[in-house]
Amino acid sequence: MARPRFLPDNYVLALLSTVALASVLPASGMAAHVFENLTIAAIALLFFLHGAKLSREAIVAGLSHWRLHLLVIACTFVLFPLLGWALRPVLEPLVTPELYAGVIYLCVLPATVQSAIAFTAMARGNMPAAICSASASTLLGIFITPILVNLLMPQMVVGAGGGQHPDALAGIGRIMLQLLAPFVAGHLLRPWIGGFVKRRASVLKLVDQGSILLVVYTAFSAAVIEGLWQQIPLTALLGLFLVCGVILALAITSSTLLARRLGFSKEDEITIVFCGSKKSLASGVPMANVLFAPQAVGAMVLPLMLFHQMQLMLCAVLAQRYARRPEAQAPAQVPAAASAAPRG
């Protein structure tokens, strides 16, 4: 029997099921501590495996196209935060202050890697540049995202001791310890374990998706115990759909117009649109787990989860439209480094 087209994919259904499970059976007491430790270990393993999978060629590929990379980084870390900040007086009344804090948080996150590259390939864009830009965005986000969080929402940042601590350097330090250190360790060990990780792609996918589900369950458990669903009315959840839709539409429109205004080719425009208008669930959830108090993480990642699904659906439509242009405009062959791109 064919799968109904209106149904989300299995992973989105798993995310929704995890939120439902945490809402009905939240982890508390000793179980909550166990899940928190499991979450830290799973995320460390996830970034270790990604470090082992990422090739040096994927980083070097397309580095010479600096104008494109600067524009993608500007869209990701300048345009998005400006949109979230400038639209706050108009959009925040549609949701709660806690949910709009989550909207601001998604605006300061790095771009996706896997889906940005996949959509660029589908649309016949500049693949080497997409690999370089998306990978650089993820790595830069480790440093830039905590700084932007500290600037735009300092009251939400949690210090090393668990209290409120508006220190960007502390956030960077925690992310480097919990995310970057395992990533670097995996990359240094790549000559010995890279082949094994590549051959076991299904294991990486399991760790990738499983760690996110674990973080979501732990985060929403803490949020539910603190009264998340009592604090968020149904009208605010409906308003969140509109808020995410407005920001996504403006980001895609702005990146497209900027690419054309600055004279980029159609292939480069595709790369800029798909790398500069997307936000990473894979990076955003672990970072939220590091930067914010446990009871705040649920409201922080809820807008990101919704935005992530919306961007996948809209970008799939855009990629198909780009792909229908004449074949003569297709770029050169995709390099082998494309297969080594990390997930995002």
UniProtKB/TrEMBL annotation:
Keywords: Membrane, Transmembrane, Transmembrane helix. GO terms for cellular component: plasma membrane. InterPro entries: Na+/solute_symporter_sf, Put_Na-Bile_cotransptr. It comes from the Bacteria. The chain crosses the membrane at residues 12-32, 38-56, 68-87, 99-122, 129-149, 169-189, 210-229, 235-258, 270-292. Pfam families: SBF_like. This is Solute carrier family 10 (Sodium/bile acid cotransporter), member 7. It comes from Paracidovorax wautersii. The lineage of its organism: Bacteria, Pseudomonadati, Pseudomonadota, Betaproteobacteria, Burkholderiales.
